[in-house]
Specification:
The chain is an alpha/beta fold. It has 2 domains: about 5-150 and about 200-300, Ribonuclease Z/Hydroxyacylglutathione hydrolase-like (Metallo-beta-lactamase, Chain A, 4-Layer Sandwich); about 155-195, no CATH class. It is about 25% helix and about 25% strand. The protein is built from 10 helices and 18 strands. The strands form 4 sheets. Strands 6-5-4-3-2-1-18 form a 7-stranded mixed β-sheet, covered by helices on one side. Strands 7-8-9-14-15-16-17 form a 7-stranded mixed β-sheet. The chain has a two-stranded antiparallel sheet with strand order 10-13. A hairpin with a 3-residue loop joins strand 7 and strand 8. The relative contact order is 0.15.
Length: about 300
């Protein structure tokens, strides 16, 4: 199972002609997960040729305007397009109250949704795990998220073929790690001889935050770290004042957490003309770094 990530918005507080407010769509075969919902996100879905009615979950990092202004518009559009699922919405304490306030302003939402005010573990299924840890941002509770495709035990089809094992419930026992007796030869077959582990995958998304130990903890060993990098290295004082990260700090998190690749996003309007300068700053510390723009896609 793979991840596909579509960057619907990569800007920071003020949107520009090139960079919309933040929105990151994470797709698996069974899930379409939107992380944050900047203003005008439903238009970004259209341009990206993605269907918002396929959304299963919305993860809200925090309720600052540039990360949440798109929620009523997106839900309104989904209602007009006869969204048939129940949208699972996750966010900090107070999310339910804020959504109720939006309905008071814009009338009752025409889709079904459930609110999950999060702690550490957000969601878990046999295939997927979503975790969250609190970050450090001004005047609001903020979370970073990790979305993890779990390790999967697989049966070696070639070995099964050689053993002439029928397609029956005994295969499930092998996959569960239980030894079996061959139904024909009566010989014992050890599960360890026919199974292997398909390594899972992990992406971590860290948006608006100041430096704090949880950034390293939540992104530990991630295949992909998507991290805000609002400011350049020489703007560290300004970044600290506004509880944001510099490109250097994002790269240091990636290095300390031993991630495989770093993605820079949430770049301020000041730097959108020459984003390569920010990229070079990060690459000095963590070589495998890229910067993204709206509608870029990644697969891992």
């Amino acid at each position: 199972m793979d991840f596909e990530i579509i960057f619907l918005g990569t800007g920071s507080a003020i949107p520009t002609a090139k960079h919309n407010h933040t929105g990151i769509l994470v797709k698996t075969p069974k899930e379409n997960i939107l992380v944050d919902c900047g203003e005008g996100i439903q238009r970004q879905f259209k341009i990206a040729k993605e269907n918002p009615c396929k959304l299963t979950r919305l993860l809200i990092t925090h309720w600052h305007a540039d990360h949440a202004l798109g929620i009523p518009g997106l839900i309104y559009s989904m209602g007009l397009n006869n969204y048939s699922k129940t949208l699972q919405i996750y966010g900090p304490e107070g999310t339910a109250k804020k959504l109720s306030s939006l309905q008071y302003i814009y009338n009752k939402f025409k889709i079904k949704y459930e609110v999950n005010e999060i702690t550490k573990k957000v969601f878990e299924s046999p295939e997927l795990l979503i975790e969250a840890l609190p970050m450090k941002h001004h005047n609001t509770t903020t979370f970073a998220y990790s979305i993890i495709i779990k390790d999967k035990t697989r049966l070696d089809k070639e070995k099964l073929k050689k053993l002439n094992l029928p397609n029956s419930p005994i295969l499930k026992k092998l996959q569960e790690g239980k030894d079996i007796i061959h139904p024909k030869t009566k010989k014992k077959i050890k599960a360890s001889s026919v199974i292997y582990t398909e390594k899972g995958k992990k992406i971590t998304i860290i948006l608006d935050t100041a430096v704090n130990p949880n950034t390293i903890k939540i992104s530990q060993s991630a295949d992909l770290l998507i991290c805000e990098s609002s400011f350049a290295e020489d703007e560290e004082a300004r970044a600290k004042e506004s509880y944001h990260l510099t490109t250097k700090q994002a790269a240091e998190i990636a290095k300390k957490a031993k991630v495989k690749q770093l993605v820079l996003t949430h770049i301020s309007q000041k730097h959108e003309i020459h984003p390569e300068a920010l990229l070079l700053e990060a690459k000095k510390i963590f070589k495998n770094t890229i910067a993204v723009k709206d509608f870029d896609k990644l697969k891992i």
